[in-house]
Design brief:
Layout lengths: L2 E3 L21 E5 L2 H4 L8 E6 L21 H18 E11 L40 H11 L3 E9 L16 E8 L13 E2 L7 E2 L4 E3 L15 H11 L5 E4 L6 H9 L2 E6 L2 H13 L2
Parallel strand pairs: 2-11, 3-4, 3-10, 5-9, 10-11
Antiparallel strand pairs: 1-2, 4-6, 5-6, 7-8
């Protein structure tokens, strides 16, 4: 059963409160499974969706039926297509979806993974078997599999953005380059949509002009977070998505809120935000970050 997590107990809120009445916060947190919560939202409620769902086979978030823990990558893709199909219904006709998603390698037959001193969230009690048609050590190509599946489901695939991480985490591999990037896909609901290119222009190298259109490779450092949630995408990344995809006062949705980064950025940029989080521990982390502003 979904419920709104109270950020300000002095206010009594219904399931769909006017969150703009809170002078200190523009974000509401709904604790529940996005697969069920989204059905309660009306059509066209949100101007933009900015989110990073759990990556397939990389983390154990400790919730039964969690997205990302499917034993079959095709089941993972099907679950995301279903969720984002419902997301598309709640999106304005000129709305956009900004989807950050990472890739993974086949497990090579291993059935578990130990903790790593450099990566506290690496330990897993399960590992999915190698997908049909792939081999041990294959890069699976999950981001593009998801992108093409969403495109086939009706989304307009408008851009593949490379999030390059200059301070990426080291890897011990000696037979391939260290992975230092992830994808952010820009989707739209319609052929014509809101995209504020001026809001995210970058400095021009040509002295005859001050700015140029934002390029598709974004060099953004990862941000450490001392909380228990180990998959925090940086505010600098989210700012670009929110600024380009919405206007002041618009509603932004994050159906996989995690530790609340999207909500923090929406507060900063004066957007209303609704975040859905299945794990109550992470929802409380997000609540604390929103209340403390960091």
């Amino acid at each position: 059963m979904a419920r709104v997590l109270q950020l300000f107990p002095e206010f009594e809120e219904e399931f769909e409160p006017d969150i703009s009445k809170h002078p200190r916060n523009l974000c509401e947190i709904v604790v529940g499974d996005a697969r069920h919560v989204l059905a309660g939202f009306p059509d066209g409620l949100f101007q933009a969706v900015v989110t990073s769902p759990p990556y397939w086979g990389l983390r154990d978030y400790g919730v039964n039926g969690q997205i990302g823990a499917e034993m079959d990558v095709e089941a993972y893709i099907s679950n995301l297509v279903a969720i984002f199909g419902e997301v598309r219904r709640t999106l304005a006709a000129d709305g956009t979806l900004w989807l950050n998603i990472g890739d993974s390698y086949t497990s090579g037959g291993r059935t578990w993974r130990d903790d790593d001193a450099k990566n506290k969230g690496r330990g897993m009690s399960y590992r999915a078997p190698t997908p049909n048609g792939l081999k041990p050590k294959d890069l699976i190509g999950v981001p593009w599999k998801v992108a093409f599946a969403l495109q086939a489901d009706g989304w307009y695939l408008r851009s593949d953005l490379i999030w390059n991480k200059p301070n990426c985490q080291p890897e011990s591999v000696k037979d391939r380059p260290t992975r230092s990037h992830e994808y952010v896909f820009l989707f739209s609901k319609s052929e014509r949509y809101h995209y504020d290119h001026e809001a995210i222009q970058e400095p021009a190298s040509d002295s005859r002009q001050q700015h140029k259109n934002r390029r598709s490779v974004w060099n953004i450092n990862t941000e450490p977070y001392a909380g228990a949630h180990f998959a925090v995408y940086p505010r600098s990344l989210v700012r670009l998505c929110v600024a380009a995809g919405s206007r002041k006062g618009d509603r932004v949705l994050d159906p996989f809120l995690g530790s609340g980064t999207t909500g923090m950025v929406c507060n900063e940029l004066e957007r209303q935000c609704t975040g859905i989080e299945i794990n109550e521990e992470y929802a409380n982390l997000a609540r604390n970050r929103l209340l403390n502003g960091r």
